[in-house]
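WARN  no MSA supplied for this record, continuing single-sequence
INFO  ligand: iron/sulfur cluster
INFO  echoing inputs
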Amino acid sequence: MLFKRIENLEKCAKEHGLIYLGCSDLDVTQDFVHFENWLAKKNYGDMAFLTLNQKVRKDPKKLLPGAQSAVLLAKNYKVPKPNRLLSIAPIASYAYYQDYHKILRQECLRFISACKRDGTLMADTDYRVTIDSAPLLERALARKGGRGFIGKNTLFISPRHGSFLLLASIILTEPLPANADHGYATEKSGLRHKDHGGCGSCRRCQIKCPTQALAQDYQLDVSRCLAYLTIENRGTIPTEYWKHLPRAFFGCDICQNVCPYNRETPVNEDWPRIIPERLKGVSTFEIAVMDQAAYEKWFAGTPLTRAKIFGLKRNALIVMYVTHDHRLSEALTLIKKAPEIHPVIRATVKQIEAYEVD
Ligand code: SF4
Ligand code: SF4
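INFO  complex generated
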């Protein structure tokens, strides 16, 4: 009976284009301790929001009255040969698609309705779908689903589907059979197996990370990570990292691209990749000097808006500087002539003019 239920959940997820990552109870104590230790090292850049709402993060039951379990789902977002699709410097694979929060939520809601219709879930089960939308240790729940592990790159990795996964957790008021908890993969486990997972003695992501943000096993120093520096960071980018931006204009996938678990994982063929079409023929110069109208035309509805207009312009200016773009001085002149200039752009222009770059 239980086996049949899990089989039905998996089948239903597949029918809705989703990857089923198992069910879990809501006890994330072990992962919360790991998270707290990481916070204590203050390696979270200026993402101070990670220090808030700890009661909920520690106990996901607080997210929904009567919560008892979670169903873990995912959508893959791998892009075929991403660097060939754009004329500007590379962007993270997930950013090629429309902002995923809404579409993934819709897919999860359709999944729940179908499960309720066919009796896999009880009709009166209450639920909450969370996709980066709640203070939840999503990767912790995902690994507790029993179909993957957290790698040394700190990402959830499914041995079958790799790590290019957008995670969705559905918190339910119905108890579901929890899968085996694989715990943290460790050197001791000695595993790097296509079925069982684990990093074993592999260190590829740590060696290939250009900024040494993964120097410690299973720990990310956010303040060194290009994904943070080019997206979430609301200030200037320290000049020591500038040389990496021509490989990471918006986000960075290096620690995923080099992971053996991603070698044979499929690309997402369900969602249209809108960025290559929108940015056809658009140069780094045009992004560096874009106004609000151009920003909306090229980036509205895409994950690149997370960096805001000033973040994208900042990144573009740095790429132009590092690549010796012949239109850099023209871009600087245009920016300085504009009636308003964002403080971060002003500071970046100053950095460039002072030739502070190593
Ligand atoms: S995203 Fe890039 S910079 Fe960040 S940890 Fe991974 S390889 Fe390093
Ligand atoms: S590259 Fe190697 S060490 Fe890094 S997450 Fe993948 S398997 Fe683990």
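Residues 293 and 300 are 10 Å apart (CA to CA).
INFO  checksum written, moving to next record
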